[in-house]
Amino acid sequence: MKNQVLCGIVAVPLAAFGLCGYILWRWGSADVYVVALALDAPLVFGTVLRLWSDSKSWHQRSTPIPREDPLYPRTIELAMKMGVPQHDLYAADPTLMAKRRAVGAITTGIRRHTVLFSDYFLKALTQEEQDAIIAHELAHTKQSHALRSVIASFSFYFAGWNLFFFAAIPNLQTPNLPDSWVSGIAGAGLIPFVAGITMVRPYIATKSQTEADEIAVNVLGSGDFLISGMKKLIESPEIKSDQKKYRIARQSLYGRMVRIQTLSRSLASRNISQKNTA
Ligand SMILES: [Zn+2]
Fold first, then answer.
1. How far is the CA of 218 from the centre of ligand 1 (A)?
2. Percent of the chain whose pLDDT exceeds 90
């Protein structure tokens, strides 16, 4: 089931691009290639620029945590244990965190990675709870979640938009293609475009969280501190101040805690049975 969904996620944009390629090959001319390139280039450029300015604003508006802070050696130790590069640590800008509906901690960056912490995370969580959540954040880096999500959602928008635009090409070249064909291709282009926003992105986001939790629990050997840290985050002033805005964030925290509990129990029983057989 899990793999089928992933295959579907990869197959949809590939099929759309294949159809675009077919249209170009069948009806395209040198001019059409130039037009396609001219329309696609700004989209790619714009996305890269947006990612870049996004990471810049996180860094400019947040406060770097001094290297002497005990959080640094603890994070480095975890990173080494997990086989991920060293991360820069910041106290996150509260407005940016609120904009993202992020609670506690967030990881940014595709090439150079940064973990940003909320004020509440730094003040209210114990060292063990902080480490557990840091392990979760580092797991996002380990699995290249940011890159995966950018590539997946972008390929859906991009493939959808191209199909929509390529629907016109046959009629530009040979004005005898039935209108139903043109609207059919254009309509098919809207599907991946909308699906990218409404389904693929949320699906990947949820899956990334589950995966990061699993890795963190395995690294820590238990989910206890992750759960107690998350329990505190649910009580954080951000969520308390605006229950409606953070409804999804809160629900996802509850859902994750249940999964972590189950995972933690099965890990504990496995350890016991290993000890018994040894
Ligand atoms: Zn996460």
1. 15
2. 49
